[in-house]
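Question (not urgent): is this output format expected?
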Amino acid sequence: MALQFLSPGWLFAALVVPLLWIGVRARGGAMHRTLRSAALLALVFAMARPVWWGTDGLTHSVLVVDASASIDPAAVAALEAQTGEWASQLPADSRAVLIRLGSSEGESDVERELFDEVVSLNGGLTEALEVAVQRVPAGARGSITVATDGLAAVPNWAESAQVLAARGVPVHTVRLEGPALDLRPVRWEAIGEWRVGEEARLAVEVLGRSDALAISLEGTGGELARLDGLVVDGRGRFELVFEPSEAGFLPLTLQAEVPEGADGRPGNERLTGHFAVQDPLRVLYLGGRHAAGRERLGELVGAGFQLEGGPKAEATALDASAYDLVVLDDFASESLPQGAQEELRDAVLAGATGLFMSGGQAAFGSGGYSEGALAEVLPVEAVQKEEKRDPSTSLVVVIDTSGSMGGERVQLAKEVARLAVGRLLPHDKVGIVEFYGAKRWAAPLQPASNRIELQRALNRMDAGGGTVILPAIEESFYGLQNVQTRYKHVLVLTDGGVERGAFEPLIRRMADKGITVSTVLIGGAAHSEFLVNIANWGKGRFYSVPDRFSLPEILLKQPTTSKLPAYRPGIHTVESSGPARWWGDVEREGLPPIDGYVETKARAEAEVLLKTADGGHPVLATWRTGLGRSTAMMTEPTGAGTASWSDWEGYGPLLARLLASSAADTRREWSFELERDGLRARLVATRLLPGARPPAAREWRDGQLRELHFDSLADGLLEARWVADPASEVLVLAGPAGDEVRLALSSLADAHPESNVDPARGLDLARFAAATGGREVTAASLAAFRPPAGGAAVDIDRTRLAPLGLLAALLFYLADVYYRRRPRARTR
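Got this back:
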C-alpha cells in the first residue's frame, strides 16, 4: 500500500499556514486559527491530487468463445458445455469474464453464477481480442483463453498481440473447426492490369470438395464469364476470362453454384466487389498507302486501343510521349520529318512510348528507313540487294583498209576491233564499216551475239586503195540514228593519213545526237593531233596502238548498279517462333501463309516471333531498346500482304497482343502502388521521368472525389496516408485528370461474411500463443485447463483522495464560519 501525489508541487502552499497565526485577536483566537489552518491544509492536500494504491489480490481470467458463422455449430455447443467447468475450477482469487462472439443466446443462470461478467459481441475476432485486453487492467495479473478458428473478416489483431506481449499477459488458444462440408469461394484477384478491350483475367480460389462445381461472373450488363464441371479437392484455383467494355471501377459478382448435398453451410457462395479497369491505350497511327487503314486496324484490334492521327504527319513535333504507342503503317520516311523521327527515337529509348512499324512498299529499307534516326531502334536491319545493270550499246567500228594500212597495221586494227566487240553483251548491237577510197558496210548493224558473222567480216578485210574517212563516218551516223539503245558509239581505227574535210561540224552534230566518237591511231603517232581533235569533238577517247603489245581496253559504256525492291510478293508459308507469352491463346500451328513481305535481317538481340519457312526471313520481330520496346511487322497489317489472314480468327487477337505488349510501360511520369497499413491506406508514388510534375491522386468515396495529400519520403518517392475503413473498399484515381490510373483495394472483409475468409489469411493460433507466452489447448481438454496467468506481481487498486480533501476543506471552512458567527453569553 502506498500514497502518491500526482501534483506534489502544490504541497509548498502549506508554508502559508503560519501566516494565519499572525495578527489574530487573543479572544477566541486559538480555535479560529486552528479551523482556518485545517481548511487551508485540506485544500492544499486536494490540489496535490493524492492517490492511494492498494492491492485486491485478484487474477483476471478471460475466456473468449467464438461462435461466429465460420465455425461448426456442433463444435461451439460442445465447447460451451465446458465453460462452466472451466470457470468453476479457477482459483478463488480469480475474476472470471466470458466474452461470447456471434452468439445470440442470452446469459444463462450458470454463466451468471460462475462468471463475474458476460459480454456478448456481434463483431469479429479482432473486436473480441480488443475487449479481452480491456478486461485485464493495466499492471494486473491475468490470462486470456481464446477458442476460435482464427478466421476474421477484418484481421487486425496485431495491436492487441503487441499490447499483451508487452504486459506479459499470456493468450491460450483452443482451435475450433468449421463444418466438414463447406464449398465456398475464399479469394479472387485480378491478374495483371485490366484495360478496356483486352482480355481481363480473374483468379478465383475455392475451398471444399466437388466434382461438378460451376462458377459464374456477372457485371452490370449480365453474365461475363462462366466455368462448368469443375473439380475441387480441398483447394482449387480457376481463371475466368472476359473483356471489359468500359473503363472505371467495375462492379462484379462471383457466384459458385454448388451441387445439392455438397455444401454443409449455404449462404457463402457469393463474392462482390469492384475492380479497376484502365482506359484504352492511346495509339498514334501514321499511314497513307492503304485506304481506311486506321479504321480497319481498329476493327482488328478491338476497343482496347484508341487510334488517333491520320495519313500524314502534319507537324515536325509528334508529341510522341503523349501516346502509349506509335504505329508507322507503310509510312515512307520522306513523309516523316527528320525532327519528328529523332523525337520518336528519343521517346522510345526513354520508355515514353513504344514503336510498331509495319508495311511493305513504303516501310523499312524500301521506305527509306535503312539509315536515319529510326534505324537504330528497329529490331531488324534493311536488306537491299543490288543489281548490276549493263546498259545496251550500239557500236559501229569504222576501219581504215587503205593501202597505208598494209601489213601489220591492218591486223592490229582487226585485233582492236575484236577486243571492242568482245566487250559487248548479246543484247548490244554491232556494225562494221570499212573505207579504202570508198565506203561500205562490211557487217550491217546486228546483235553482238552474231559473233561468227562479225568475225568473218573482219577476216575478209585487206588493205588497198586510198584513205577517205569522212563518208564512212557519215554512214555510221546515219545507221545509228535508226537504233534505240542507251549508248551509241563510233570507233574509228586508222593510221591517221586521212583527207581534209568538214569533220568538225559532223562530229559535233553526232555528239549532240548522243553519239560518241572515239579514235584509235594504228602503228604510229604521225597524225595523232588530228585524231585527238576528232575524239574531243565527239566527246570520246583517243587511243594509240603502236604494236600488238599495246592493245587498249576500249571503254564503250559504264555499267551501273541499282537496288532491287526488298518487297517479295507471292505466297509464303510462315512458321511461329519465339516465347509463348507473345502468342497467348492464339493457336501457333497451321498458320495461314502471307501474300508478301519485306525481306529484312533480324538483329542479334531481337526476338523473332514469325518467320518464313523458306529462307527463315523474319516477318514479326521485337526487342527491348533502351527503356522502350520496338516491334516490326514486315508486311501490311490491313493490305495485300495479309489478305489470306482475313479469315484467320487468331489474327486480331495476335495483333492486339503485339500492340499492347509493344506499348510503353513507363510512359507516365509517376508509378503508383496502393496498399493497406493497418487501419490506414497508403499510396506510394515513384517518379519515372526526370522533371515530372508533382503527382496528384483522389480517393473515390461515397460518390465523391477527395484529394489526397502527398508527403516526401525521399527524392522521387512520395507517400499519401489516410484512414480507411477496413470493411470498405479503397478506390483511387492517380495521375493528371484525363490520364488517370485506377487503383482498387478490396475491403479487408472483402465485403463478404467471415465464412468466406481464406484460412491462409487466418490467425495462426499456435504462433499467437507462443508470441504471448501462452499455450495451445485442445477443445476436449478445456474443462480441466487452469490457465496460467502473467503480468504484474500484484493486482493494483487505485483510490483518488482529492475529493476527500476538498470535502474536508469545505467542512473546516463552514465550522470556522459557524464558530465566528455563533451567539456569545453576556458577562457582568
